[in-house]
Backbone:
């Protein structure tokens, strides 16, 4: 009985976890774009970093790479700290939400590939 209960729980939990983390299919790779502006807030944590930047009067959410990849490629948390100016190249969400999946970022004059 316990095995059946555990199996049922896993069958329900795994899709929920997968759904909670957005997939890349929600971004439009046919419409690359560039946003530039000051960082309003940033996180440098797992499963990936994120930013909010002010671009042309709108607040844009930016999905970055995992911290281990950013560190390995030379992007430190300090480079994307609040108040820093950054340029992000990537793909916008298909549903029009002001969010971009970053492919590369330029901070402190250095361009870092994230994917």
Residues:
């Amino acid at each position: 009985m316990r095995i059946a209960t555990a199996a049922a729980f896993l069958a329900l939990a795994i899709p929920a976890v997968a759904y909670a983390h957005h997939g890349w299919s929600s971004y439009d790779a046919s419409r690359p774009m560039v946003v530039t502006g000051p960082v309003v807030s940033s996180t440098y944590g797992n499963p990936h970093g994120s930013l909010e930047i002010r671009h042309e009067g709108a607040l844009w959410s930016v999905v970055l790479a995992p911290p281990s990849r950013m560190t390995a490629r030379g992007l430190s948390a300090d480079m994307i700290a609040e108040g820093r100016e950054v340029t992000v190249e990537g793909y916008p969400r298909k549903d029009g939400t002001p969010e971009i999946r970053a492919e590369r970022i330029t901070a402190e004059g250095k361009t870092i590939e994230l994917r």
